[in-house]
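Is zinc ion placement plausible here? Inputs below.
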Amino acid sequence: MSIYRERAYSRTSPSASVLRTVSTRERRSHLSAPRVPTVGIDIGGTKVMAGVVDADGNILEKVRAETPEKSKSPKVVEDTIVELVLDLSDRHDVHAVGIGAAGWVDADRSRVLFAPHLAWRDEPLKDALTMRLAVPVMVDNDANTAAWGEWRFGAGRGEDHLVMITLGTGIGGAILEDGRVKRGKYGVAGEFGHMQVVPGGHRCPCGNRGCWEQYSSGNALVREARELAAAESPVAYGIIARTGGHPADITGPMITELARQGDAMCVELLQDIGQWLGIGIANLAAALDPSCFVIGGGVSAADELLIDPARDAFRRHLTGRGYRPEARVAKAQLGPEAGMVGAADLARLVARRFRRANRRRLERYEMYERAADNLRRAVGQ
Ligand SMILES: [Zn+2]
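Reply from A.M.:
I modeled the complex. Tokens:
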């Protein structure tokens, strides 16, 4: 009898433990969230982009504002956000606001702990904006919102274990498992760009040497091209001619464009970046074993010139290769708007919670009223 019980218990326990770790309510929360338009905001180093997004990820309207170099105080960015949201609310019914910020956001998604390009240090952004906008506000890291956007409406649809890598000036990253963003205990998980890949390598602004983003990012691409151009290397004649002999004028999009036209050096530089990308994601696969890597950010505009060498290197460096299923490596589909669309969609979840909390408060109030009425009637009789 007791043996039978034990077996029955062990047979049901796996599903029970799954339900404990990933609650069904949270997994499906995006499906039951109200289908209302929300505003998504993407805060970069020099600009703020805001858009009204519907429940299917369509952008109904988009506005943007520059944040001047000198005025990166929290107040200026906050004022810009309020201005953009109020402007959009004139024409749309806004139910919640989601913000994707280039910086570290705490695990409660309310404070920006640190933003490398802005003067934010432990900034209570959510509370400040909720007060001024009078709608629910959600704050998250921009890589997390971009990953969410790609998972819901882009290259990561249908993947329950997804890792997103954004190659911009540096590397941003995010982990999505079973429909939830993995933020870590303190909210700063996914900083893959600063994993050391070359001991004693290039100096990184973070203070360490040999960080991954020193080898696989827009900055790395431009640095290498400028070095070759400055040394007047014979392989760099194409790009030297293009910039009129000014290596400082070289940009990432220029390298991508020349590579598309067949410039051998630019193709090679993108291959190098792609190879480092592949090595890095092989390391991530060893740690996280996702089913899909989504590659986004400005450098991903190079398409197959970047992704093909990345896939090759990934396959060559994957631990246990040949004996395990390989994760898919896909290019992001939503482009520069991924973060904004994702932030808006995440805000929809807060919109629901806000409404539920309100309804509960209302129910409680009505219950007390009824009780008080009954009491008054009882006393009156
Ligand atoms: Zn670093």
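Short version: The two ends are 61 Å apart (CA to CA).
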